[in-house]
Amino acid sequence: MQVVVLAGGVGSRLRPWTNSVPKPLLPMLDRTLLEHVVSSLPADLVDEVVVAGGYKVNMIEDYFNEHEVPFDVRIVPENKPLGTGGALGNCRDVVSGTFACFNGDIISSLDASELLDLHKRNKSVGTLGLWEVEDPTRFGIVGVDDDHRITRFKEKPQPDEVFSNLINAGSYIFNDDIFDWMPHGKHSIERDVFPKLAEEGLLSGQDFDGYFIDAGTPTAWNQGAKACIEHERFNHGSVRSSSWYEQGDSSSTATVTDSVISKLCHLGTGRIHQSSLLTGVHLGDDCTLDACLIGKDARIGANCTLTGVVVDHGSIIPSGTVLNGGQWPLSEHQ
Hints:
single chain, alpha/beta, seven-stranded mixed sheet
């Protein structure tokens, strides 16, 4: 099968990490985010991944040309923002038959082969992975009958419009005749396509258990990393005390919990909780990191306290710095 990954955004909520690295290439443990997204389908079902994106797509193409993965990667560039529907519609000349389509920052326990089975059984044009939430007003909600056919679809309903707590989980199986339902140019597949398919009985949905994380924010990124640790979504490294280490760090006396520690990191003597440290991070002694994203080769001086901060790759933070939220280097609004 082909898999389309919708990766058109610039990853603004993960800046400054994404100023120099496109979100699909950001490492979550020892796999890129793109590889985690695609892994919703068993590897033996995937032969080509089509990345529909407009931000630093040359870097994505170069990366997968240089690194061995079990699928081919093709880029369909998005020269201007086209919305979710327009980005998928851009791929109409390169995908065929039945294919999968995933939003580019979803970390979940979904086994999309189950969607594929339902899709074939119901002879649907589209089949959606569904997730149950308490407050569905930020999402697209669905009504489903006993045969798992979606009878209604409403994107981001007002509180008085809510008729279901099942939401669209951004993971789909489509037939290529989905393109017959899509206008050319910019549009939203959630607002402009799914409601029409639901009215015609051509949309199905399957809910799943486990975990579902949209890893597009710093907090959600660390939640996604924690899920990947707990469910052993990594190829190398080891887990100790709820944290993943790409390689050992026997010299450190830091207290580390629910965190990602990439290779060549020096941790000092402080405390690190629910944070992601990329390759080559150096921490001075007596630092406290909580819910942070620390970019590659960043150097953080002694006695720093950082809470909810995204630190750019290669940054140098002076000793004694205290920050709560935001980014480093500091933006003009901090």
